Amino acid sequence: MSITILRKQKAGGLSRDLMPLFGFAAIVVVFSILTGGKIISPGNLSLMLSQVYVLMIASMGVFMIMTVGGLDFSQGAILGLSSIVFCWVSNYSIVLGVVAAVAAGAAMGAFNGFFHVKFKIASFIVTICSMYFFRGLCKYITTNGPVPATFEVMMLDETWLKVLLTSVVLLAGFFIWHFTRLGCNLRAIGAGETAARFSGCRPDLTKFLVYTASGAITGFASFINVIKVGSITGTAGSQLETQILIALVLGGMPISGGARSRFPNIVIGALTYCVLEKSLPMVFPVSATQQLVKGIVFLIVVALTIDHESLRVIK
């Protein structure tokens, strides 16, 4: 009997893991039919891919935060402020600009991690507060106009470069997630912080490092963001945090994190979100209808993929 139950659990886990992939395939097929194949035309595919790089990279940092049971609503503001830092420093050196953007992102992530860990404030409260703080700085800095990057940055807007950089970041994250102690600690904390502490893990330090690393990853994503836009306004990165959270949930990421988190959640979720974002305007020209259909699709996908057994209060 126990073997039968174990087999059923494995089958249920496998179907739950594959459901986001089936959902992505279904969405591509449905919208390909509705748009007469336009959505999978080379031009539209190129346009969708141009939007997915920043989202996919930034999602990796939030993926780690959600794995330990937290949330981060400040990613858009971190992207905007890091992009401004990159633009400033890029006028002296593009390489130094990337380093400065990563450092700025890491500092903002450390700001979130410090208040979350030191004062035991819920992650969503800390990051909502920091979102307004960082966003306010962005708007204050850009009051007199957009902050431009050096002209040479625009010359780096090549698909191969963005694919290469995104692949390197994802491969590094994949290695850390599967083959290092940190990856094990993240899953252990998400599954149960008390048990993780007794097993030798240091949850507070790990969470602080995760928030810092997430900010640094988004800081790197700001480099790709500036390559695409050339200059930064006070609204840079607006709604990115919402896009990330929706993308990860669409990819099958359990809200409570833990051992059931899967690295493919990042890739599948980002691709699914971008397909929906670019397909809906082709099928439903009216913005209100797009929002309505988007909400229905998100609810259906979340209902099919969410892990009901592990839901709990977000830390």
Layout of helices and strands, plus pairs?
Layout: H1 2-34, H2 42-67, H3 75-90, H4 94-118, H5 123-141, E1 147-148, H6 151-154, H7 159-179, H8 181-191, H9 193-198, H10 203-229, E2 231-232, H11 240-250, H12 264-283, H13 287-305
Antiparallel strand pairs: 1-2
What does it look like?
It is a single chain. The chain has helices spanning 2-34, 42-67, 75-90, 94-118, 123-141, 151-154, 159-179, 181-191, 193-198, 203-229, 240-250, 264-283, 287-305, and strands spanning 147-148, 231-232. The protein has 315 residues and is mainly alpha-helical. It has a two-stranded antiparallel sheet. α7 (159-179) crosses α8.
Q: TL;DR?
A:
This protein is mainly alpha-helical and 315 residues long. The protein has helices spanning 2-34, 42-67, 75-90, 94-118, 123-141, 151-154, 159-179, 181-191, 193-198, 203-229, 240-250, 264-283, 287-305; strands at 147-148, 231-232. It is 76% helix and 1% strand.
Strand tally is 2
Helix content: over 70%
Tell me the number of helical segments per DSSP (H or I, 4 or more residues long). Answer: 13
Rg, Å, rounded:
20 Å
Order of SSEs, N→C?
Answer: HHHHHEHHHHHEHHH
Distance between the termini: 37 Å
The mean pLDDT is 87
The structure class reads mainly alpha
Shape: globular
Give a quick account of the main beta sheet: strands, pairing sense, barrel closure: 2 strands, antiparallel
Order of adjacent strands in the largest pleated sheet: 1-2
